């Protein structure tokens, strides 16, 4: 099974914007969902920008909306090992990465399809 091709197929079927290279990056609102093959199977990384420096009230509302949606997607990806990372290498633009690692790429594709179809 080519996990990248299967994930790209899911994105196409759901009408989502995506790029496919060494990974597949799907755009859902302000969230980037990246699927990458690994030696152990595959992983899904949900990336979202946390509150930027000088954020307005509207910015805060958008971050909260994106955070909620990212957590909903992560909850649907229920079969993988879950971890979180915060990137503050650019202090004005902190990012949160929610990572699910799967040993079974077919299960990842199934869970991702279910999560993105909502």
Question: Quick summary of this structure?
Answer:
With 118 residues, the protein is α+β, with helices and mostly antiparallel strands.
Strand content: 25-35%
Shape verdict: globular
- The residue ranges in which pLDDT falls below 50 over 5 or more consecutive positions are none
Please give the CATH architecture.
Alpha-Beta Complex
**How many helical elements?**
3
The end-to-end span amounts to 25 Å
Number of strands: 6
Secondary-structure element order, N to C? HEEEEHEEH
- Global mean pLDDT: 92
Class inferred from helices and paired strands: alpha+beta
Name of the CATH class: Alpha Beta
Helix amount, in percent? 25-40%
Radius of gyration: 14 Å
The CATH topology is what? Answer: Aspartate Aminotransferase, domain 1
What is the makeup of the main sheet? 6 strands, antiparallel
List the domain count as a whole number: 1
Strand order of the largest sheet: 1-2-3-4-6-5
Describe the structure.
The protein is an alpha+beta fold and 118 residues long. It has one domain (3-116): Aspartate Aminotransferase, domain 1, CATH 3.90.1150. Helices cover 37% and strands 35% of the residues. It contains three helices and six strands. It has helices at residues 3-14, 57-76, 105-116, and strands at residues 17-20, 24-28, 31-38, 41-49, 81-87, 95-102. A six-stranded antiparallel β-sheet has the order 1-2-3-4-6-5. Helix 1 (3-14) runs parallel beside helix 3. The mean pLDDT is 92.
